[in-house]
Amino acid sequence: MRSVTYSMGVSLDGYIVGPDGDFTWTAPDEELFRFATDEIREVGVHLLGRRLYETMLYWETADQDPSLDDSMLEWAALWKPLPKVVFSTTLPAVQGNARLASGGLAEEIERLRAEPEEGDIAIGGATLAAEAAASGLIDEYRPRVHPVLVGGGIPFFPRCERRVDLELAETRTFASGVVHLRYRVTH
């Protein structure tokens, strides 16, 4: 069965975006960008909320940007054909290899898990991940902890009404001081 993963950059104090909406501190250096590229290779479908979908729209046409280096073109070549499911109540349509979710998050994940496809089901966006976590749908948490305290904003981890036990599966420290943590949910 396909795993559901939640992977994003997070400040040491637990936020994906600061109180002013800034997330420039998550900009990856070359080493971290290669790691993210390798991580996306494992993804079979990406679930996104509206805000992250709109942020990532750039990559749908990035291959036409003459200023991109080879590593960014490689990322674009992986991202563009990747199937995406967008959860939004305000978007009338989506672009590229994306579709608007036809059901709720739990129903979409159940359907995707039942498909014989390869690759993880990745969740992007804190709001969508919070809904998945509240329903016990996330199998792995993969925060990339950045060495910065932002003092507030949008939290990586949602408030949870129940305890969730985790098993450490992997760690990696990057030259930039970013630490990747990979935890599996124990059932």
Strand share of the residues? Answer: 25-35%
User: Mean pLDDT score, rounded?
Assistant: 93
Radius of gyration: 16 Å
Q: Report the biggest beta sheet as strand number plus sense, adding barrel if it closes.
A: 8 strands, mixed
Order of SSEs: EEHEHHHEEHEHEEEE
Strand order within the widest sheet? 5-4-3-6-1-7-10-9
**Amino-to-carboxy terminus distance:** 15 Å
The helix count comes to: 6
The helicity comes to 25-40%
The helix-and-strand class reads alpha/beta
Task: List segments where confidence is low: pLDDT < 50 over at least 5 consecutive residues.
Answer: none
Tell the overall outline: globular
The strand count comes to 10
Report on this model:
- The chain has six helices and ten strands, in the order E-E-H-E-H-H-H-E-E-H-E-H-E-E-E-E.
- It has helices spanning 30-40, 50-56, 58-61, 70-79, 105-114, 126-134, and strands at 4-11, 15-17, 43-49, 84-87, 98-100, 120-124, 140-146, 154-155, 166-173, 179-185.
- The strands form two sheets. An eight-stranded mixed β-sheet has the order 5-4-3-6-1-7-10-9. Strands 2-8 form a two-stranded antiparallel sheet.
- Helix 1 (30-40) packs parallel to helix 4.
- The model has no long low-confidence stretch (mean pLDDT 93).
What secondary-structure arrangement, pairings included, does this model have?
Elements (H helix, E strand, L loop, with lengths): L3 E8 L3 E3 L12 H11 L2 E7 H7 L1 H4 L8 H10 L4 E4 L10 E3 L4 H10 L5 E5 L1 H9 L5 E7 L7 E2 L10 E8 L5 E7 L2
Parallel strand pairs: 1-6, 1-7, 3-4, 3-6, 4-5
Antiparallel strand pairs: 2-8, 7-10, 9-10
Helix pairs in contact: 1-4
